[in-house]
């Protein structure tokens, strides 16, 4: 079992690194997050946004975000910019249909990420009439482990019901996301079989990162040995061809790149991905530290910010320090995802490649 990229993989990585550099220079926006609320109807142990049922920050008015999307379409073809509504839990808002139909009229495909608690048949049909195109539902284990992580006694049943609703819709693109953690790790194969039996075609697995509530909760983080086993599980699942499984957008995976996910991964934050946060902050990935917020829609021109800032994400040469300083893989990894940088201590919180390398050495 090798982690270091093979000669053939290194050639592909070298070509891909040039592609990433070109993408950073072009910075064409094609994935746009709207953090529409920090309210949530559950209380997840691993929440990156630390959301609650009642929060001090009010929901952003839909018309404020729509002004920005209207501006963006003057510079980009809206048909090629995916709008993803996130939170918090987007379905706690009662005006998603109104916002959605206006996004549809502006020409944008749009979707949202949900825990499934409030996704009833009636709400789904109402959203579909408003142009809904895609949905991501979280399923984080079998019943006990899912409910433990999500903090809701009926979370598993609600999530599974939401998934079953989506499986029966021909006009919706959907997938299921699972956050791997020590409590559900032994269940991954059972989760796979459940999803296949339910009719799910696409499954993404993330490992929980040490950010948000998980930063001070090490029981949520898988070990380096489990990370290696996860790569093998994904590789074998993809080879089976019964469900299209892939690893999330985190981390450089060495020789596992293009074997456990579609193509070679890289952090697209600030390169192709932007977000407007609930308080109007202009950022990239919503999981990024607030220390890399680039402006605010209530005082800055969004397109000016997008075109002329975000350099911390487009040129990551600054990240070659700490454990990254002498790393030979830096030219491919670029210092991992930006959301994994601790800007207080000026260091990367987690290195996937190092975890895999150490686990492989210990195993053999």
Polypeptide structure, described:
With 364 residues, the protein is α/β, with parallel strands linked by helices. 35% of the residues lie in helices and 15% in strands. The protein is built from 12 helices and 12 strands. A 10-stranded mixed β-sheet has the order 7-6-5-4-3-2-1-8-9-10. Strands 11-12 form a two-stranded antiparallel ribbon. Helix 2 runs parallel beside helix 3 (96-106) and helix 8 crosses helix 12 (352-363). It is globular.
* Spatial order of strands in the largest sheet: 7-6-5-4-3-2-1-8-9-10
According to DSSP, the number of beta strands is 12
Order of helices and strands: HEHEHEHEHHEHEHEEEEHHHEEH
Helix content: 25-40%
Strands, helices and their partners?
Layout lengths: L6 H20 L4 E5 L26 H11 L9 E5 L9 H11 L3 E5 L6 H9 L2 E7 L4 H8 L4 H13 L5 E8 L7 H11 L3 E6 L16 H17 L3 E4 L25 E4 L4 E3 L11 E2 L5 H7 L2 H4 L15 H4 L7 E2 L4 E2 L3 H12 L1
Parallel strand pairs: 1-2, 1-8, 2-3, 3-4, 4-5, 5-6, 6-7
Antiparallel strand pairs: 8-9, 9-10, 11-12
Helix pairs in contact: 2-3, 8-12
Give a short summary of the structure.
This protein is α/β, with parallel strands linked by helices and 364 residues long. The protein has 12 helices and 12 strands.
């Amino acid at each position: 079992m090798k982690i270091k990229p093979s000669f053939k993989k290194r050639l592909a990585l070298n070509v891909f690194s040039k592609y990433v550099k070109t993408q950073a220079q072009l910075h064409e926006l094609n994935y746009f997050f709207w953090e529409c609320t920090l309210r949530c109807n559950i209380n997840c142990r691993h929440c990156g946004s630390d959301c609650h049922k009642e929060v001090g920050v009010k929901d952003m008015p839909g018309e404020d975000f729509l002004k920005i999307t209207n501006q963006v379409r003057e510079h980009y073809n809206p048909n090629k910019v995916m709008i993803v509504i996130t939170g918090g839990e987007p379905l706690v808002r009662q005006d998603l249909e109104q916002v959605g139909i206006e996004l549809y009229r502006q020409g944008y495909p749009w979707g949202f990420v949900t825990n499934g608690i409030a996704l009833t048949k009636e709400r789904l049909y109402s959203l579909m009439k408003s142009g809904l195109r895609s949905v991501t539902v979280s399923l984080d284990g079998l019943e006990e482990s899912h409910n433990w992580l999500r903090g809701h006694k009926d979370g598993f049943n609600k999530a599974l019901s939401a998934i079953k609703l989506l499986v029966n819709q021909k006009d919706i693109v959907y997938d299921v996301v699972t956050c791997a953690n020590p409590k559900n790790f032994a269940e991954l194969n059972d989760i796979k079989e459940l999803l296949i039996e339910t009719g799910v075609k696409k499954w993404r697995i993330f490992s929980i990162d040490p950010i948000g509530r998980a930063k001070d909760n090490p029981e949520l983080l898988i070990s380096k040995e489990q990370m290696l086993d996860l790569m093998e599980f994904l590789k074998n699942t993809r080879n089976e061809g019964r469900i299209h499984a892939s690893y999330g957008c985190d981390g450089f995976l060495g020789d596992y790149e293009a074997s456990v996910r579609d193509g070679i991964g890289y952090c697209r934050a600030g390169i192709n991905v932007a977000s407007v946060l609930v308080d109007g902050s202009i950022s990239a990935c919503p999981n990024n530290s607030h220390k890399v917020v680039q402006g605010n829609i209530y005082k800055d021109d969004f397109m000016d910010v997008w075109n002329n800032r975000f350099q911390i994400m487009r040129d990551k040469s600054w990240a070659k320090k700490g454990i990254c300083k002498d790393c030979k893989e830096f030219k491919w990894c670029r210092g991992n995802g930006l959301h994994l940088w601790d800007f207080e201590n000026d260091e990367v919180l987690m290195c996937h490649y190092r975890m895999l390398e150490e686990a492989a050495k210990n195993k053999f």
